[in-house]
Amino acid sequence: MTGSLSGQGVRADHPAAPTWVPRAGEGDSAPAGESPPAALGQDRPVTTFPSSAPEIAARVRELLAVARPGWPGRALYALASLPFGALYLALFFGLFGSVIALVYGVGVLLILLVLATTRGFAGVERRLVRTLLAVDVPAGERVLDQPGIIRKLRRLVMSTGTWRALGWLGARVLMGAATLATLFFGGLGFAYLGWGADWNALTALPLLAFMVAVVVLTLAVLDLLVRLAASVAPRLLGTAPEQAIAALQQSTRRLADRNKLARDLHDTIGHALTASLLQATAARRTLTPPDDRPLQPDFARQALEHIETNTRTALAELDRVLTVLRAEDGGRDPAPFAAPSLADLDGLLAGLRDGGLPVALVVDGDVEDVPPGVQELAYRVVQEGTTNVLRHAGTPLTVAQVVRSGDTLVTRVCNERAPQTDSRPGPGGGRGLAGLRERTAAAGGTLSAEPTPSGGFELCVTLPLSGAA
Fold first, then answer.
1. HEC string of the chain?
2. What residue segments make up the domains of the chain, in order of their start?
3. Which of 48-52, 143-147, 293-297 has the highest mean pLDDT?
4. Is the pLDDT of residue 3 over 50?
5. Does the pLDDT value for residue 281 go beyond 80?
6. Does the reported pTM lie above 0.85?
7. What is the pLDDT of residues 107-161, one digit of tens each?
């Protein structure tokens, strides 16, 4: 470091800023506008107080980041009870004044303002408890998310979360008072023992022990208060019972919807792949016929068209399921879709006939006014039944029958003994029939799946017309 001497002191060159070094005997004085550093060549850190709300919030976040859960977090939480308790006490005085102001006509607005402020402070309290005490308190219901002003005001007043939050603020007022009393009496006892007692060679050691005991007792009481608050916080700041029930019901509905989507996807993809495999096998045989059989390009072209149709249907179903799942994960309601009905059975079985499965459709009775849920389930029965025929029996003679009898709908898929077994696509995992049995039971119906005396197999489902929504 190089510098030049002058009559007033030494001005040292510094890469950041000039630093004043006073001469001997000058003390800490410095020219106007300049401050002497703490040491030669070092800049004294300048402490500035936050002057705006964002700066204050940033300082508070820094403080919370340093005070991790443990004794530092509990100590900071206990000290924070003093200003927060005073603030919440003022809030209760405001609520009391709002009730008195009801006779003047403005009390209602003041009460709503106090309740809204209470919910806002409850959010701050949840963050403090999670950050400083490491207590997992779920976020409460947001009144602002409710549609419409009337709905918001009704939830603000009628929700138990508001009054539970008000009870928590009251507990925080009591905790602040208890913290203040503990610190006051602990400091008073410490001061009395330190300055008011008669210190001599005989009493010094006992007095020191009593002073340590007072400090330990004060800290123990503060820690007990904080731990008591941590045990009560989930009950008052956590989710209200009706909110927990509503969330559980929503989760149950979502799981049921996803289970239904998985079953629909299994039925559609499984049927499409099985039918496509059957048609691809038939097309291969017509293009490479054994012996002296003629080629059948028209049949092969038709089979390839059905394979294309089946593939498009499977891709559309997969895209629909993914769209619904993404909408649910994003918190949005999925767009409604057209569920299959009994009118779609002709198109379902047409591709199987062209692929080589001799299947007939028999509809008996008036099925036009059958509820959509029952129609969709009957469609899934025929879809699963014909898919199982292809997998397990190949291409035997098959009959799909839908019969309405009074208030019930009977759907049956029956196949004869397989003439050959070399064209079977192979057995599935059994999940389709098990899922179909669960859906039938949920709709109040019955399902039977058993071999027939002729060596075939029959799948029969009986559904009440009022069983599925």
1. CCEEECCCEEEECCCCCCEEEECCCCCCCCCCCCCCCCCCCCCCCCCCCCCCHHHHHHHHHHHHHHCCCCHHHHHHHHHHHHHHHHHHHHHHHHHHHHHHHHHHCCHHHHHHHHHHHHHHHHHHHHHHHHHHCCCCCCCCCCHHHCCCHHHHHHHHHHCHHHHHHHHHHHHHHHHHHHHHHHHHHHHHHHHHHHHHCCCCCCCHHHHHHHHHHHHHHHHHHHHHHHHHHHHHHHHHHCCCHHHHHHHHHHHHHHHHHHHHHHHHHHHHHHHHHHHHHHHHHHHHHHHCCCCCCCCCHHHHHHHHHHHHHHHHHHHHHHHHHHHHHHHHHCCCCCCCCCCCCHHHHHHHHHHHHHHCCCEEEEEECCCCCCCHHHHHHHHHHHHHHHHHHHHHCCCCCEEEEEEEECCEEEEEEEECCCCCCCCCCCCCCCHHHHHHHHHHHHCCCEEEEEECCCCCEEEEEEEECCCCC
2. 61-237, 246-464
3. 143-147
4. no
5. no
6. no
7. 788 888 888 888 888 888 888 888 888 888 877 677 777 777 888 888 778 777 8
Please state the CATH superfamily assignment of the domain spanning residues 246-464 in this structure: Histidine kinase-like ATPase, C-terminal domain (3.30.565.10)
Instruction: Kindly provide the b/e burial profile for residues 348-367, where b requires at least 16 CB atoms within 10 angstroms of the residue's own CB.
Output: bbebbebbbbebebeeeeeb
Which pLDDT value is given to residue 399? 93
Confidence of residue 460 (pLDDT cuts 50, 70, 90): very high
Any idea which residue has 């799946």 for tokens? 449
pLDDT tens-digit readout, 415-436: 998 766 545 555 555 567 888 8
Check whether 63 has a pLDDT greater than 80: no
